[in-house]
Amino acid sequence: MKKEIRFCLDKMHEMFPEAACELNHENPFELLVAVVLSAQCTDNLVNKVTKELFQKYKKPEDYVAVPLEALQQDIRSIGLYRNKAKNIQKLSQSLLDRYNGDVPRTKEQLMELAGVGRKTANVVASVAFGEPAIAVDTHVERVSKRLGICRWKDSVNEVEQTLMRKVPKDEWSDTHHLMIFFGRYHCKSRNPNCPECPLLQLCREGQKRMKKRDAANTAVLK
DNA sequence: AACTCGGGGCA
DNA sequence: TGCCCAGAGTT
User: Fold this and answer.
1) Residue A137 falls in the annotated catalytic set
2) Dihedral (Cα; A42, A44, A49, A51), 10-degree rounding
3) Following DSSP, what letter does each residue of A80-135 receive, concatenated?
């Protein structure tokens, strides 16, 4: 089983040798804000907004100091901007209250912060601090289920547990980014692109889809 | 487990 | 136009 995972990761790496976190990860606080903003919206758009945002806001104090409406206006081109502005202010306040304005390292500490859930906590912990964590987003979940690494009915939590069990610990962070790229550019939710997939031979969903396609083709020929 | 927030991108 | 997107909180 682990051998198959190894094969998948190697092939994904061949397809996307540049796969890495596209968000700024030099500054943990900026990474945290960027990941919060990125929920349900493309990273392209997030990058556009954060470019100006990070010129204006440097530290948690800066986000807390402005009226909520001002911050909302500054991120208005992003979806869910009202909630996100609120969350960032609450988040900044709790960083000031509990960590003197610094960003904590572990995913447990991060997840306790306002507006920070499981995925955000895992991304920040692993990317900014090198903590062992696998962030499971929609791409990672879909790819894992299609390949057969986990079961269709598994919850996000179960997917994460399974991946942590099957993937060597020192590759958790890479695995996340590889699956993101693979899911976004190849194994898309609508179009998995199975006929041109290097993982087809061992992919559960791919085999099923190809079999179905072959059946449809032979039916047409008759 | 389902619902809500939400503007931009893409077909 | 209609559908989807590097999610989290509430019910």
Assistant:
1) yes
2) 150
3) THHHHHHHHHHHHHHHHHHHTTPPPSSHHHHHTSTT--HHHHHHIIIIIH--S---
Say if A5 falls within a structural domain: yes
pLDDT per residue as tens digits for the range A78-117: 999 999 999 999 999 999 999 999 999 999 999 999 999 9
- Give the count of domains, chain A: 1
Tens-digit pLDDT profile for residues A19-47: 877 777 789 999 999 999 999 988 889 99
**Protein residue at shortest CA distance from C1' of C9:** A115
A202 domain-assigned? no
Where does residue A14 fall: left (phi above 0), alpha (psi -120 to 50 degrees), or beta otherwise? Answer: alpha
We report the CATH number of the domain holding residue A76 as 1.10.340.30
Annotated catalytic residue A154: no
The whole domain housing A68 covers 1-192
**With a threshold of 0.85, does the pTM exceed it?**
yes
Rounded percentage of chain A residues whose pLDDT exceeds 90: 79
Nucleotide showing the shortest C1' distance to residue A46 CA:
C6
pLDDT at A221 over 70: no
